Amino acid sequence: VRTITPCASSLFPQADWLIGNHSDELTPWIPVIAARSSPSCRFFLLPCCAYEFDGSKYQREDSSCSLYSDYMSYVLSVCEVCGFTTSVDRLRIPSTKRTCFIGYERRHDAGRAEETDRTIQEFIDSRGSKNKVRNVPTSSEGYWSEFKPREGKEVVRNCTQLDKSLLEDIVSLVSRILLNKRRNISATSIDGEERVWNAGGCLMLNEVAQALPREKLKHLKKQCSGLQTLLRNHPWVFKVEQGAVQLRVPKRRSDLTGTGCRTKPCWFHGNHPDGCLLPGDECAYQHL
Asked: Is beta strand 17-21 parallel, antiparallel or unpaired with respect to 42-46?
């Protein structure tokens, strides 16, 4: 296993086929590498995430269609510029991104290789200008020197690597901020007992963020996109919609479908000033 960087040393003159399966940043480069490897080299390409030649995210150019459809049109244009007769097909796989490209033969003979190569480079250069990236080809490679492969070890940025105590502190702080906006609701148990419970207010995420200590937000942003990610990762406590957050009202066990009672402890039972709105035998979560 090795990192492939588009350059003269990453050609495959002995290969009959190059296969790009969800090749991400290398997706637009697969037809180019195939075209420059040898006259007999062909390719199979199954794109997923949309990237440009320099490794940046592809920006949609046709607002009348989805980003994916627009990118598929772009990939096909790359295949054509590289001189391939390209077949477009849809694989029978359990995925919404199943459009594939098969460059199975060349439209031009080997005698026009230099002309095709110039056309390819002009196309790459034009994409560089479009994305405001300066193209500085070396004399031996003629590829983008700005292309940067993905880091070998990607940084996890979804809150799963945060210190547990920090997570608990932020969840507790946000819940207290919401509870200060008192909003009482009531529920009647199966036995007929009525209970009043503070459901708290509904606040915009930026309001909640402003009320949190700066230091905690600083630690949070190192690991994820911010407060919203953390709150969405706690759906049994919070309900996040349209940029606003509120406490989630506890669900009854009878409201669940399929698997029945959940095994996760009820957060409200141990942390809410009023306890859980529901009795332990009715709550969808465990009262420990």
From this structure: parallel
